[in-house]
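User: Second chain of the day. Same drill as before.
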Amino acid sequence: MSMIRDLRAVVRPSLRKTNTLHSGYDTTRDPSASSAVVDCAVYRDGRRIAEVEGTCRTPHEAMLRVRENGGFAWIGLHEPTEEEFADIAREFGLHPLAVEDAVHAHQRPKLERYDDTLFTVFKTIHYVEHAELTATSEVVETGEVMCFTGRDFVITVRHGGHGSLRALRHRLQDDPELLAKGPSAVLHSIADHVVDGYIAVAGAVQEDIDEVEIEVFSTPDKGSPRGSDAGRIYQLKREVLEFKRAVSPLLRPMQLLSERPMRLIDPDIQKYFRDVADHLVRVQEEVIGFDELLNSILQANLAQATVAQNEDMRKITSWAAIVAVPTMICGVYGMNFKHMPELRWTYGYPMVMGFIGVVCFSIHRMLKRNGWL
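Assistant: Same format as last time:
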C-alpha cells in the first residue's frame, strides 16, 4: 500500500503496543535534568539513524550529521527557558519573535513564516476526569505545542503536563515511507494528532452537557430547589469557552497549509491538511453548538427557578387570602364599641366561628381547584 493511502492510518492512534526498540526516550522533562531537550534524533530515508550510528546527544550534533549526510533532525523540548533555548535558536537560525513566543507560551493558535522557517502554534486540550460535575469542576485543561519547521529540521516545544508526542513519534518511525517526506510529514502528523484530541474531548464534554441537561429537566429532589444547577452550567460554559479559544483560531492556519502552495510543505502532504481542516471545522461546529445549548439550558434553568418562585408566591398569596377572612371578622369584633350587634347573643360566638370556617373552606377549595394550592 502506498504512502498516501497509509497516511491516515499512521497518524491515527493505534491499538497495537509500542515497539520496545523505540522506548529509549521520553517526552516529559525530568525536573532534575539540566536540559529541556527530551529527544534528539536524525531521520534519513525515513529511518532513525540513531539505531545504527548512536544517539545524537545534542541538537548541534544532530545538525552536523544532517549537513554531512542529509536527512532531517527532530528536536523535542519541554518547557525550555530562554537560556536553554538560546543555543538552539542560534544553531537553527530561528527568529527572535518566534523564540520569544515559544519560550513564554500562552499564545493563540497561529501560523507564521520567518524566512525559511514555519512557526506553528497548537493548543492542546486534555479532558479532566471527574466523578461528579460541580460548580468548581475543571473540565478541560489546555497546553501548547509549538512547531518550528525548516527544510531539514523540526523543533517541537511543548508546554503543559499533557499532549505528549511520544506515541506519535513511535507511529511515524514505524512508517519510513511517510517519514521520508521530511519535516512537513511531521507537521501534518502533529496537526492531525492535536485535532484528534479535540474530537475525543468534544465527545466527553457532550456527555457532561447531556448529564446536566437531564438533571435540569428532571424532577428535583427534596432539598434541591430549581435553579441550583446554575453554578454547574456556568462553570461548564466557561470550560467550553476555553475549548473554543483553542479550536477556532487554528482553522485559518490549517486552511492556509492546505490551500496555499509552500516551499516547505511537500505537495503529497499538503492535500492532507485539508482533511485536518475538515475535522477541525466539525469540532468547531460542535463547540459552537455546545455554547448555544448551554445558553438554552441556563435560560431554562433560570426560567424554572422563576416559575418555582411564582408558585411559592401564589401559595403564600392564597394562604394570606384565607387568613384574611378570620382576621377581618375578629378585627371587627375586637373594636371597643359599647353598642355592637350580637355582643350578648348566646349563639353569637359559635355562629361567627362556623361562618369563618365555611368561608375559609370555600376559598381554599376554590384556590386548590384553580391550581394555586
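The first strand starts at residue 37 and ends at 44.

User: Great, on to the next one.
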